């Protein structure tokens, strides 16, 4: 029994470390929105518990030890000197509840993402990164600040079976099976949005990709992530880059 408990504690601390690194990476790449937004990850075990940032801290202040454990409604489990933001957890709680395959959820308001969310046509699938997201993106009509449980079912219907949710006039949420995959997916969406914004400023027509090419891009990118562990290699490389530039994060 003791060995099982120690194993669970080790697994939780590994998740805490990876999630704290994710927060620090979002800060490092300039994707933060001051103290707002969340990245959450589900803890192992039958009881549905999640790790999330303490409300009020900057992303570069998040550590494995100050991450909070919350329930699906964003309410604090256990004791902490910090408090969660249950209202801000509404989107995360909805996705975690309905999608057992998406263990890590990240929500961001980068300038590029929010600009794309503002546009009626949404995300283009005609650049290298956008092509990898074809058929994976849902759109949710803006209903105001996402605070209320009554919006959960509508957000889930908008997401469908995808793993990227563009919140119109707002921002983007992504979900994946673990922290490295969620980080790589968020980066992919950010790159797709940046390129689309830049291309939109250049006169002339865009080159449109055939649907078959888009689908091939989706299949190949998923295969490389699953079989060649691209997401793990990518995440670890990003952490090394950040550490080289800023020192050990915590």
Molecular structure report:
It is a single chain. With 250 residues, the chain is of the alpha+beta class. The protein has 8 helices and 7 strands, in the order H-E-E-E-H-E-H-H-E-H-E-E-H-H-H. It has a 7-stranded mixed sheet, with helices on both faces. A hairpin with a 3-residue loop joins strand 6 (164-167) and strand 7 (171-176). The longest helix is centred in the first third of the chain and has 27 residues, at 2-28. The mean pLDDT is 94.
What structural keywords apply?
250 residues; alpha+beta; seven-stranded mixed beta sheet; 8 helices; 7 strands
Which strands sit side by side, in order, in the main sheet?
3-2-1-4-7-6-5
Q: Class by helix and strand content?
A: alpha+beta
Ends distance: 31 Å
Low-confidence region ranges: none
CA-based shape: globular
Rg result: 18 Å
Q: What percent of residues adopt helix (DSSP H or I)?
A: 40-55%
Q: Total strand count, please?
A: 7
Tally of separate helices? 8
Beta-strand content estimate: 5-15%
Q: Please, what is the average pLDDT?
A: 94
Largest sheet report:
7 strands, mixed
Order of helices and strands: HEEEHEHHEHEEHHH
Topology (SSEs and partners):
Blueprint: H1 2-28, E1 39-42, E2 50-52, E3 68-70, H2 90-98, E4 104-108, H3 111-118, H4 128-131, E5 137-140, H5 152-159, E6 164-167, E7 171-176, H6 179-200, H7 211-227, H8 230-246
Parallel strand pairs: 5-6
Antiparallel strand pairs: 1-2, 1-4, 2-3, 4-7, 6-7
Helix pairs in contact: 2-5, 3-6, 6-8
């Amino acid at each position: 029994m003791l060995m099982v408990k120690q194993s669970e504690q080790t697994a939780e601390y590994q998740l805490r470390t990876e999630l704290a690194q994710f927060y620090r990476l979002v800060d490092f790449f300039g994707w933060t929105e001051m103290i707002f937004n969340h990245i959450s990850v589900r803890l192992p075990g039958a009881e549905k518990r999640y790790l999330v940032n303490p409300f009020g801290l900057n992303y570069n202040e998040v550590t494995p030890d100050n991450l909070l454990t919350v329930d699906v409604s964003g309410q604090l489990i256990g004791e902490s000197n910090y408090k969660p933001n249950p209202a801000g957890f509404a989107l995360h709680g909805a996705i975690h509840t309905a999608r057992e395959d998406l263990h890590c959820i990240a929500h961001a308001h980068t300038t590029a993402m929010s600009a794309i969310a503002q546009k009626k046509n949404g995300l283009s699938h005609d650049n290298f990164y956008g092509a990898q997201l074809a058929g994976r993106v849902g759109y949710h009509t803006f209903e105001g600040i996402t605070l209320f449980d009554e919006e959960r079912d509508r957000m889930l219907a908008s997401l469908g079976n995808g793993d990227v949710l563009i919140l119109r006039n707002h921002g983007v949420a992504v979900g994946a099976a673990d922290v490295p995959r969620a980080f790589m997916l968020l980066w992919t969406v950010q790159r797709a949005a940046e390129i689309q914004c830049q291309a939109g400023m250049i006169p002339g027509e865009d080159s449109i990709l055939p649907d078959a090419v888009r689908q091939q891009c989706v299949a190949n990118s998923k295969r490389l992530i699953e079989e060649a562990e691209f997401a793990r290699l990518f995440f670890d490389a990003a952490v090394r880059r950040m550490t080289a530039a800023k020192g050990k994060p915590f």
